[in-house]
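Researcher: Go.
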Amino acid sequence: MRALRAGGFWRRWLWRLALALLLVPPLLILVMRFIPPVATPLMLIRLAQGYELERDWVPYTAIAPALAHAVIAAEDNRFCEQTLGFDFVELRGQVEAALAGERPRGASTLTMQLAKNLFLWPGRDPVRKVLEAWLTPQIALLWPKRRVLEVYLNVVEFGPGLYGAEAAAQRFFSRPARALTAQQAAQLAVVLPAPLRWSAADPGPALRERAGVVRRRVGQLGPLLDCTR
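Model: Structure:
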């Protein structure tokens, strides 16, 4: 009898946990559609690692359009076309590459990166990837594209302990985010894969070349940038 009661207790708690996992994330996502997030897990991790926390939230209209264009060109060309936050064209290509014995490059979208930044920890472990895949469509369905870009550009890490477009523009170029040039925006976009190692203010030859590629790609995207307006 005691074992039965114990089993019932754990079943009830498992149901409560499952219900919380189902309901809490969409509620938080819905709240953050209108209210800026206080902090992200990465910010707290960097603080624990000894880095400072430098950020300055600004509205989307206070960020030069060139930065949204550059980030899309560098990270997620089909962002404006995605409904659920996934790039199924790129995913299919990666599956085909894996089946052919090639090393997949990854198919992370801006919405997937935002889900990771807002709720999860850095890394490539399977548990995190599953949670990221579960959270991504919730953000994509509950937020308009411009809100995704606004939050992303305010929380993404541009340097050690440096988050968001405004703080990065002030640190690296001594100007507000609204005054970023196309070249400066491209330099910020290309450091996103490794912001602890690369500097937008002092890019090496490889990063400068990559920034040039991003600028040319921005000019080629055309209607694929329509959702940034």
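Model: The mean pLDDT is 90.
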